[in-house]
Specification:
There is one protein chain. The model has no long low-confidence stretch (mean pLDDT 93). It contains four helices and three strands. The longest helix is centred in the middle third of the chain and has 14 residues. It has a single domain, classed as Orthogonal Bundle (Arc Repressor Mutant, subunit A). It is α+β, with helices and mostly antiparallel strands. Strands 1-3-2 form a three-stranded antiparallel β-sheet.
């Protein structure tokens, strides 16, 4: 998992009840959507992030991974 994936996972972990749009993540991270989309796809492949109606949120697996790192 790369640096951008970790940043995104931490942002979603910090707001576990939030569903965030790509545009919100662009503002928070200062990264372009195409870069974020690739990182989010990697997190989805790992099962750490879910996507619904163009919104991203942390999965229970992602929550467990994030807690092992930051809690």
């Amino acid at each position: 998992m790369g640096k951008l994936e970790l940043i995104l996972l931490q942002e979603l972990f910090d707001k576990p009840d939030a569903q965030m749009r790509l545009s919100q993540l662009e503002v928070i991270t200062g990264k372009e959507g195409r870069d974020l989309r690739n990182a989010l796809e990697n997190l989805k492949d790992l099962g750490f992030v879910l996507e619904e109606l163009d919104k991203y949120f942390i999965s229970s697996t992602g929550m467990a991974e994030a807690k092992s790192r930051w809690a």
